[in-house]
Amino acid sequence: MRFISTRVHGIMDYLMGVLLIASPWIFNFDAGGAETWVPVIIGIVMLLQAIMTDYEMGMIKTISMRTHLTMDLLAGLFLAASPWIFGFSDTVWAPHVILGLMEVAASLMTRTVPTYAHSRNPVSNAVNDITGNHHNRL
Question: Locate the SPW repeat-containing integral membrane domain: which residues (predicted)?
Fold first, then answer.
């Protein structure tokens, strides 16, 4: 069931991108190898993707929401599997798996059409996001 609005997903994208970039230092696994750079690179890509997605939080709007969600799914799976792909699972794996699975879950629970595709009224969109009323537009 897709119940996360694209607007909320956009906010989550920016927060997750920053968290991924900072995670090696927050969770103390900044050894300088793949364990450090995989989340940093995915975080940078996530921020760039958010900027370029055609949704409420995008700025350039060149990537469709469906493509964005597919990229999120693949990035989340890659992040979750990276400790075993790159051989650092004996030193750290939990942050990669947890954040990766969060990304997978968000990609599967987010609506595929931005709210503004139905209404260009930002007040109406905000009220509909808060109330969950996406069938009877204001």
Answer: 9-108
How long a stretch of residues is the chain?
138
pLDDT tens digits, residue range 46-82? 999 999 999 999 999 999 999 999 999 999 999 999 9
Domain span including residue 10: 6-130
Structural contact between residues 80 and 104, judged by C-beta atoms closer than 8 angstroms: yes
Tokens 């050894």 identify what position?
31
In-domain check, residue 18? yes
∠ Cα 77 80 82 (to 5°):
100
Q: How far apart are CA 36 and CA 102, in angstroms?
A: 18
Question: CA-to-CA distance for 15 and 1, rounded, in angstroms?
Answer: 23
Instruction: Classify residue 24: in a domain, yes or no.
Output: yes
**Nearest one of 1, 8, 77, 93 to 42, comparing CA atoms:** 77
Question: Tell me, what amino acid is at 81?
Answer: A
Give the count of domains, the chain. 1
